Amino acid sequence: MTLKIAMVFFFVMIVLEWLICYFFKKKYITLFDTISGISSGMTNNIKSIFKLSVVIVSYQWMVEHFALFQIESSVWLYILAFVGTDFAYYWTHRWNHEINLMWNRHIIHHSSEEFNLSCALRQSISGVFQVYFFLYIPLAIIGIPSDVMNLILPLHLFAQFWYHTRIIKKMGILEKILVTPSHHRVHHAINDEYLDKNYASIFIIWDKLFGTFQEEIENIPPVYGVKKPVKTWNPLLINFMHLFQLFKDAIRTKKWIDKFRVFYKHTGWRPEDVSLKYPIEITTNPYKQIKYQTQSTYFLTFWSLSQLLLHFAIQYHIIHLLPKFHYQELIVYALFCLVSIFSYTSLMDRHWLSIPLELTKLILGVYLLFYNGEIFNISPNFSISETIIYSYLFVSLIITIIYSTKTIEQPKMIK
């Protein structure tokens, strides 16, 4: 229920931000970028709902084996848990930025060349292994119960949503205590003055304590994105492109030590022989940034937006079905949703990859209808007919084939 409410709240706030930008003529939002961001958030939701990750050591296990105290429930217990979680998040976030391999877990969040509320939803699906469990050992030692952490962790994550915006300027005294939109704009910037600063999630004090704080400078506007532009709307590609590059560099380098060092050196490090022979595009002057955009038509823009809304509804439906169906019955539905998201975001790129993805989506859709059609019974009095679903699957395939292969000479709309 909490996730359903959060999904609707985030969506409403993104629409509200867009309305404010529209009426005040602020060019802070582009449609395809927003669709990509929200779609990325939906893929992360699917991963979380179905627990598609490996927990090396659970927090409950650490409490059972390491706890030296038993703290009585009180307001201070929750405050202590929240502050401890924020401290752990600071180091998790910082190491994700500073270590080459760990950057792959976080690149999706920084991949947008805009900065708005939809960026907050750009969450990773590539962090399959929960590797930072040891940061929560101090909380386990002092006896913070797991049920308290189960409440605090999602609240702490949701509390990071609001400051992904350019609408709110500096906030006076709060700038000295909390992470504000101004602080986080610095964090998302690729300007040399701002790079690798302001890692904190809620309390900015951590950056001030550990030497990573940078104030937003009035005459230096932040430029957003990543140093190596992702140049795609597809969250699947963004999630794994850095890891793919690391493995290519590890294979290509002739030095055996570099085949290992490439993974644990600082982010962006490449073996010298590989960087000379296989140079990659890096933004050296952010003020000359050319933002990624793709050609579109009114119809393709409408189709992409309608796909976003449809898959938002599908994800809502999946959450609704969780208590009613077995995990194995819903996993194909979840996979269908993921593949479909990757398909329509690739179509926004006008990339050939959308065709095999769409064919896979068609196969999964037919499988669901044939073997598990009761999933589409929305309520005892209403179900979606097979004719409508088959029609959608084949129309979607036709549109994908046309727009992934068709050249638009004079696009009517660019987003």
Structure description:
There is one protein chain. By secondary structure, this protein is mainly alpha-helical. Among the domains are: about 55-210, no CATH class; about 295-415. Helix content is about 55%, strand content about 0%. It has helices spanning about 1-25, 30-50, 60-65, 75-100, 100-105, 105-110, 135-140, 145-160, 180-190, 205-210, 235-250, 255-265, 270-275, 300-320, 325-350, 355-370, 385-405; strands spanning about 55, 130, 295, 415. It has a two-stranded parallel ribbon. It has a two-stranded antiparallel sheet with strand order 3-4. The chain starts with a helix and ends with a strand.
**How many strands, what sense, and barrel or not for the largest sheet?**
2 strands, parallel
Class based on secondary structure composition and strand pairing: mainly alpha
The residue fraction in helices comes out at 55-70%
Q: How do the strands of the widest beta sheet line up side by side?
A: 1-2
Shape: globular
- Give helix and strand order, one letter per element, not per position: HHEHHHHEHHHHHHHEHHHHE
Based on CA atoms alone, the radius of gyration comes out at: 23 Å
Tell me the total number of β-strands: 4
Mean pLDDT reading: 93
